[in-house]
Every structure is written in C-alpha cells, then in structure tokens.
C-alpha cells in the first residue's frame, strides 16, 4: 500500500499551527547562525526540511499488520523463508540524524501454513523504519510483528547500518557499522537452526 503524504496546507488547523511554529523556529536558527533566511538559497529551506521529515516519518500513518493480512497457501515443508539485503533508511530518535543499512529478515512457517507475499517482509521493515527509531528497537519490532501476525515456528531479523550520529558528529567514525539481531522461537532456542539460518543469510 502506497503511503500518501498529506500536504501541510491540507492538515488540520492545530497541526498547521505547529508546523508554522516549527518553520519559524528553523528560520530563527538560520538567522542565529548569521544567515539570511530570506536569501534565494534559504527561503524555501524550512519547507524542504519539513517535507523531508514528513516523508521520513510517514510510518506513523501506517499499520504494519496490513501488509501481513493476506497470506497464500503454498506447498512447502516448513523450511525458513527469508529476504536478505533489504535496504532502508531511518531517523535516530535521539538526534534525528539518519542511519542507513540493510536488513536480513526471515521466518519459518509451520508445515503447510500459508505464507506472506515476498514483498511484505520489506514493507513491514519500511513501516517501522519510517518512524523515529533506534536500531535495537527496529530489529525487535520486525520479529514481533511477524510472530504476532504469521505465528511462525520462529522469526529473525539482522540489521547492519551506518549511523550519522557516529559518522558525522561526536566520535566521528565514518564507515563504522552497527549490527543488531533479534531471534524468536526455534532461531532463538535451537543453535543448529540459528547456525543454518546464518549460513543461508550469508550465502
């Protein structure tokens, strides 16, 4: 399901008032840095920032369960199903700088159990990624959603990403990669199942 971004001009009055205050705050920040917010280069910058934030937090307007509501009967033996290398970008909830990376998402349906469409796993990731996030929370939200709505034998999500807050401020370590993992069911409890999962994920 495509996400529709509501133009600020069409938003409820209370929200328009909040957006206007934020726009004025951005103009004041630019002026405080000694810049002219009315210059040709900057006059539209507050609106661009607001549109970017609207787009990058559009996941608050979506329910990830909708992407798993439809399943398909498939002849399978209950082996793991996964999508690897799924790209995403999210905003860190601590500083609102982006973190970008790839996710490997898997679940193991029960034998004969209907399965979700192939695109649905990345869509679940996208819904949560397009919210203010931490990587740890994002990883867990994906597996929790798969468990709740598909009721598999187990699920897994491994995320690797680079964080703007680590690369461009503070420690300033560009190229550093954060890795998080969430395992449930058989992938959490059975070391052999988890090892086989990793083998499949890494090819």
UniProtKB/TrEMBL annotation:
Substrates-to-products reaction catalysed: GTP + H2O = 7,8-dihydroneopterin 3'-triphosphate + formate + H(+)
Keywords tagged on the record: GTP-binding, Hydrolase, Nucleotide-binding, One-carbon metabolism
One Pfam family cited in the UniProt record for this chain: GTP_cyclohydroI
GO cellular component, one term: cytoplasm
Gene3D superfamilies, alphabetized: 1.10.286.10, 3.30.1130.10
Coiled-coil ranges (or none): none
All copies of domain GTP cyclohydrolase I, residue ranges: 26-201
Quaternary data: Homopolymer.
Family in the record: Belongs to the GTP cyclohydrolase I family.
Official protein name in the record: GTP cyclohydrolase 1
Organism whose genome encodes this protein: Streptomyces atratus
Annotated gene: folE
């Amino acid at each position: 399901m495509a996400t529709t971004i509501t133009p600020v001009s069409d938003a409820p009055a209370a929200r328009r008032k909040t957006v206007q205050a934020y726009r004025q705050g951005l103009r004041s920040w630019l002026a405080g840095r000694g810049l002219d917010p009315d210059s040709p280069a900057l006059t539209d910058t507050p609106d661009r920032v607001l549109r970017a934030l609207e787009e990058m937090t559009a996941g608050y307007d979506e329910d990830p369960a909708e992407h798993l509501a439809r399943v398909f009967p498939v002849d399978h033996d209950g082996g793991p199903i996964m999508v690897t290398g799924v790209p995403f970008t999210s905003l860190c909830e601590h500083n609102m700088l982006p973190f970008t990376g790839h996710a490997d998402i898997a679940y193991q349906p029960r034998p004969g159990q209907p399965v979700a469409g192939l695109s649905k796993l990345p869509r679940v990731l996208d819904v949560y990624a397009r919210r203010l996030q931490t990587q740890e929370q994002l990883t867990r939200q994906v597996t929790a959603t798969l468990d709740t709505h598909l009721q598999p034998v187990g699920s897994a999500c491994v995320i690797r990403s680079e964080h703007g807050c680590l690369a461009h401020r503070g420690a300033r370590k560009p190229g550093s990669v954060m890795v998080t993992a969430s395992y449930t069911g058989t992938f959490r409890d059975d070391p052999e199942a988890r090892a086989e999962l990793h083998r499949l994920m890494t090819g």
